[in-house]
User: Fold these one by one.
Assistant:
Number 1:
Amino acid sequence: FAISALATFLLGEGGKRAAISTVCISLWSVRLAGFLFYRILKTSKDERLSNAFKSPAEVAGFWVASSLWGILCLLPHTLLNFSPQQ
């Protein structure tokens, strides 16, 4: 998320709102990544992913769903960056 948010900020029109949005998304994504990394260090494995990765079709479905969710969540930020500033 942080890399996509930064990329759209740098390629887009910029502005204060876009900068604030980029910072918020980056902070949120770093916090989330830190939490997930801490959790996997603490438990040594993730049962939810182990259950989801039983077959190649389930792995593909997981990654497609994750990609679509990421695109959907970043869509407002991307539109903000590429809209004309007022």
Number 2:
Amino acid sequence: FVGGTSTQDDSGIEFVEAEEFGYTDPVDGSQTSKQGLILSFKYSSGDGARVVFRLSGTGSAGATIRMYLEKFEQDPDKHNEAAPVALKSLAD
């Protein structure tokens, strides 16, 4: 979807963009591409969120795909919410 247009569904969460990312080793400077995907979203409140899928593994055998959910929350009263509650709308 890289370079596509944004979309919004009934949840009020707008899909903004998708971006593929790579990794540069800080020790030897080697570069590896296609290490993950970042999906960026925006809530109707204007707050941003993203879902990150990252390839993780030893490089010799097998791999794991890790998924991270991140959401900006400007309301201080919601900063102590449990992660499953705070991120439910994004996960759904």
